[in-house]
Amino acid sequence: MTTKVYTAMNAQINKELWSAYLYLSMSLYADTIGRTGIGKWFYLQAVEEKEHARRLQEFMIDRDVQITLQPIGSVPTAWNSIREMFEQTLAHEQEVTRSIHHLVTLAREEKDYAAEESLWWFVREQVEEEATAKGILMDIQLADDDPAALVALDTKLGERKAS
Q1: Of 48, 43, 40, 52, which Cα lies nearest the Cα of 23?
Q2: What is the mean pLDDT of the chain?
Q3: Nearest to 19 by CA among 89, 82, 101
């Protein structure tokens, strides 16, 4: 594994762990404002992001390279609305997609075909992540701050099962 790919993969692990931290923060905030279904949805999203980091870590371990964990930056802890949380979620997932695409391009340029192949799983996963965030955001926009619709959405998101 080249130094460039190694450095970028280490950075991506940090981004995945930061994502988990962000979604944990959103989960806790949703719980504190009585939106426990949304809180559960974000908690499971945090778990999923940690699994993404672990997938990268396992690939690097299989390649016999040392992982260098970096400090995880701070995350927001409060939002003005559920809508704002999901707008931030979508924007964040779009940023993660750009990061993954950059990593795939870098692996290809460095002729690290094993890394490139491994990263295609993340490319496909990001399509799902963005589509899910967009769908929830559309539901929120349709609810148009109607309390009953937001309670129904909270209930629906609370039905999410761990993957």
Answers
A1: 43
A2: 95
A3: 89
pLDDT of amino acid 144: 80
- CA dist., res. 148 & res. 45, Å (int): 24
pLDDT in tens, 82-141: 999 999 999 999 999 999 999 999 999 999 999 999 999 999 999 999 999 999 999 999
Q: How far apart are CA 11 and CA 103, in angstroms?
A: 10
pTM tops 0.85 = yes
**The three-state (H, E, C) secondary structure of the chain, written as one string:** CCHHHHHHHHHHHHHHHHHHHHHHHHHHHHHHCCCHHHHHHHHHHHHHHHHHHHHHHHHHHHCCCCCCCCCCCCCCCCCCCHHHHHHHHHHHHHHHHHHHHHHHHHHHHCCCHHHHHHHHHHHHHHHHHHHHHHHHHHHHHHHCCCHHHHHHHHHHHHCCCCC
